Amino acid sequence: MIQSTLPLLQPPRFCQYAAGPCDQHFETIDTSRGLFLYASRPPQIAATIAAAVSMLNERTEERWLTWKDMDVGGRLIFCEICKTIRGTNTVFADVTTLNFNLLFEIGFCIGLGVTVRPIRDTNYVLDKKVFDELGLLDTLGYDDFINSKALVNAVMKARDDVPMNTPTKTYRDTPLFVLRGPVETEGAVRLFSALKKSPLRFRAHDPIETPRLSLPLALKHVRGSFGVIGHLLSPNREGALAHNALCALICGMALADQKPVLMLQEEGAEQPIDYRDIVQTYTSPNQIPRLLEGTVNQIITYMQEATPAPGSSHGGLLERLDLGDAAAENEIGGLREYYVPTGQFTTAKRGHARLVIGRKGAGKSALFYAIRNAAKRGHESLVLDLKPEGHQFTRLREAVFEELTDGQQEYTIAAFWTYLLSAEIAHKILWNQGEQRFAERDPERFGRYEALKRAYQAHGLASGDDLPQRLLTQVDRLAARVGSAGPVSARTDLAELVYGGDIRTLNDAVAEYLGHDKEAVWLLIDNLDKSWATRGSTTEDMLIIRGLLDATVSLERQLGKRGVTFRPLVFIRPDIYRHLVGETPDRGKDSSISLDWDDPEIFREIIMRRITVSTGLKGDFLSVWQKLIVPTIGTEDSFNYMLDRTLMRPRDLLMFVQRAVEVAINRGHAVVTAEDLRQAESGYSEDLLLGLGYEVDDTRANLSDALYGFYGAPTSMDREEVIGRLEKAGISVDMVDETLSHLLWFGFIGVAIGDTADVQYAYGVRFNVRRLENALRTGTGRAVVHRAFRAALGIDDTVAGGE
């Protein structure tokens, strides 16, 4: 029986292949009870599936098809696949091995609303690690088999699942969804630079920030967007396999959902036949803006013609609940409605700190955008929000530092930052149309504006590029000057190398314009340490941050003389801050704000505000929470149960609650039940473990292997047992102590000190890991794996020691 006879059997009004309305006829669609999609290799698995389908056709009166039954004249044409999928009740897709065609088709089925049941030969583990990284299909579950008989039994027992349901939210403010790769290639830099210049704002999935994207959230992004772009990496790059697989699946969803789709391919690569016509290959990053033109125009046209998707006012409370994106970068607009103004926010807004310190997922980006929004007050303030990335300074270290003495390095980096910040302030003024119109209202002000423009252009800085490209250009220019200068002996020589001319004219023009027309200048800098290894940052890295802080002091004095308040905020991780303090002679001169979360009430308020904004529910937290989620799990408060399984970071809690809501919706529940919550914990724990693996691998390659050495571990262990597990996981003897220190720092392991004390984790002792190490070394404490990871590691979730 066909699942739906109306929307599925009507040609779509937009298809990327036709670049408009579908040009196919749907009158003769072949119908079936089940359609089996699988790769032709490995041949033994293909033969097993084919045999199972033959058995199903013999034993039942229903019709079962495989892709080989399609009449495609010896070639696999996606239009025929599309029609056959629309005529089936359930698609059984083999995911034993990684096949991009299959993933694209699975995504297409999900986008159409056709039920998908992944099947896999559990004895064949070739691509298991990549599927674990991908993670999306876990939501659907798997039907396992090892032979044709087992597959037939699994299919016959399979229930008729309801197609995946997901709340619909239309992202008109950010209509484009972009799949960012795990590597910031030159092509990626050029892609995002071109998108920033386009009239379309966008959201991006960043695998560095969120390693695994859940299937319901992916579908929500696709359905709420007006176009999708996947940036495919060269097959020769590390991480390309999992990322390109993700692009295939999500772009398949978008194609089915009738959205314009562009798949950009770095380098030449043989493309799967299903979507080869959607892929645009570039050999030079300079080709990317041209390749984007058609898609950008297509999306703009689509937005003008498309009927907005239903809002969140329909459906039950769970369907209406929108917790937003765990990544603040994708929730800039939403944060205006539900950001919780904490004490740290108030301190930062008053300008009482120069540094903001917080772990990944602790809310640094949310505070960044909240301060940016709060600081904008007409033309009296200028907000310079910069998000450079640490890797952009690699060339600076390699090409500049090696040629200079320690003292010269310190002067050079501070001067470089002073020059860069002055240039960026000028750029902000000159490239802002509102600022230009403001300047044109007054002849004297316009004279200062034109003087600033001349000074800026005199340094060859006029550019429409975005910050990463401007920064790389500045670094390359400095590197070229240093490389051709020979021995540098005087500070005047260094100044000439850094500035490439008279800097005073530019500085004076900036100060003159700001001094007459602005009361305050805000400088917000985030992402500087994004690619720096945890506890592996170098002295040169610290020099970059110290140089930045010295430059902000210099600018503060310079602007202060003109009556302009200068308020800088630099956002960094705790490990970077500790390293910085350790290498700074006059420690403590830079005031800081720490984003440490130890009050459950703040977490309740974070969740409560998002609930209220999306559902309209009001009242005390407990009464509202019970309308959405069962109040207890066992005898434990359900909210505390979830919070205890986070690393006390807002992002973790949002991920867990979102997982629970997704499970409940897919099961047709009006309220998240205790069983829904336990099921959600399994997927959430896997996501968090994978994410932590990426973080610890930044410290040293393959260090994440240490995490899996604790599979099936007891609830508490002494130090010797921990060391034994690390050694069995492949950690060398000389690296065991350092690895244990890392696992403590990340919160993967905590320490139960004494017989009845609560388990303490690094974030609860302000990352004073020595305290925890000492308790383990002296035998006064026992190691405990954090509750957040126990479900993924098969650890009994009961702990001696009061947790």
* Helix share bin: 40-55%
With strands numbered from the N-terminus, the spatial order across the biggest sheet is: 2-1-3-4-5
How many domains in all? 4
Secondary structure: number of strands: 20
Class per helix and strand makeup:
alpha/beta
Distance between the termini: 52 Å
CA-based gyration radius: 28 Å
Q: Provide a count of the helices.
A: 32
Largest sheet: 5 strands, parallel
Q: Give the DSSP E fraction (strand runs of 2 or more residues).
A: 5-15%
Mean pLDDT score, rounded? 86
Morphology: globular
Q: Which stretches are low in confidence, meaning pLDDT under 50 for 5 or more residues running?
A: 1-6, 308-314
Structural overview:
- This protein has a five-stranded parallel β-sheet with strand order 2-1-3-4-5, with helices on both faces.
- It has four domains: 126 residues, Toll/interleukin-1 receptor homology (TIR) domain (Rossmann fold, 3-Layer(aba) Sandwich); 136 residues, Rossmann fold; 207 residues, no CATH class; 94 residues, Arc Repressor Mutant, subunit A, CATH 1.10.10.
- The chain contains 32 helices and 20 strands.
- With 803 residues, it is α/β, with parallel strands linked by helices.
- 48% of the residues lie in helices and 11% in strands.
- A hairpin with a 2-residue loop joins strand 16 and strand 17.
- The two termini are 52 Å apart.
